Structures are given as C-alpha cells and as structure tokens.
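Example 3.2
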Amino acid sequence: MSIFKRIRDISAAAVNDLIDKAEDPIKMLNQYLRDMEDDIAEAEIAVAKQIAVEKKLKHKYEEAQEMVDKRGQQAMKALESGNEDLARRALQDKKEHQEKLDDFKTQYDNAKSNADSLRKQLEDMKEEFNKMKNRKDTLVARAESAKAQKKINQTMSGFGKDTGAKGFERMNEKVLQMEAEAEASEDLKNSSRSLDNELDALGSDDVDDELAAMKAQLAAKNKSE
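Structure, written as tokens:
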C-alpha cells in the first residue's frame, strides 16, 4: 500500500468519523424517508410506463387476433361461394396477421411479465417504506429518551460541584460579612448608649441633691411648728 493511499484512507476515516459524530438521528431518519419516497415516486413512473407498454401490446395483440379470426371466416365464406382465389388471398392475409399475432403475443407476454415484476417490486418498496416509518417513530422516541438521559447525566455529574457550589460558598461569605457588619453596628450602638447612660447618671445626681434639699427644708419647717 502506498503512503498516499494510506493517507487518503486515514483522511476518509477521519471525515467519516466526524460525519458520524455530527449526525442527528432524527434528521437523518427523516432524510432517509424522503429519499425512499423519491425512490418510490421514480419507481411508480417506471411501472406506469411499463404498464402503458403492456396495454399497447395487448391492444395490438387483440387486434391481430381479431384479424386472424376475421380472415379465417372470410376465407370460409369465399370458399362456400365458390371463389377459391378470394379464399386463398384471405388465407394469405390471415397468415400475415397470424405472424403479427405471434410476435405481439410474445412481446405482450414479456411486457406483462416485466410489469408484474415491477408492480411486485413497487409493492415491496411501499411495504418496506411503511415499516421504516413505523421504525422511525420508535427510533425517534428512543433518540429523544437517550438525549434526555444524557442531558440529565451531564447535569447530575456537575450538580453542586462547580458553579452552584461556588455560588453558595460566595453567598455564605457574603452573609458572614453582613453578620459581621451588623455585629459591629450593634457594638457602636451599645457604645453610644453607654455614653448616654453616663450623662443621664450625672443628671440624676442633681435631682437627688435637689430632693435632699427639699427634705431638709421640710424637716426644718416641721421643727419650727
């Protein structure tokens, strides 16, 4: 084997492999059915032509048969009337029509046999086509099921491992950040309240002092009475 032929074979194999990988079963099945329909249409035309030939030869065969019968009857009548020469000529013409009859009969038989064979082949093609249509429905259903299963398997194989898991982890970090910010805000709030409490405490001492002064006044008043 030459190196060029080997390279060509390898290239062809690679191309065929790519084609196989690129084929969509559903599209290809539809294309196969369309091709079969085209073949059937062509076969129907061929059968119709052959049937036309069969009918034409049958018509010629029947015409020749009629002439043979007619000339035989005419020859008998001529002989019965005593015209032997006319009877002879009628028989001669009958012989010529008989030769045509035999030829047309042979052609007709062959044409009919061919037409019958083509009819049978056309019926077989249509029967096979119907079988393929039924198989196509089954294969399409199987292909769709396989696609769905493959999609689910691919989805499940990466489920929670890549994008989803990373997204959840990112959101977890974000929530932790929010919680930390909220806690810091609470600390600031508490710090502010502590200052207010201290200031309030200073204010409450003045009230206590004033209250103590009022008590002293009241006690002095009671003594003077």
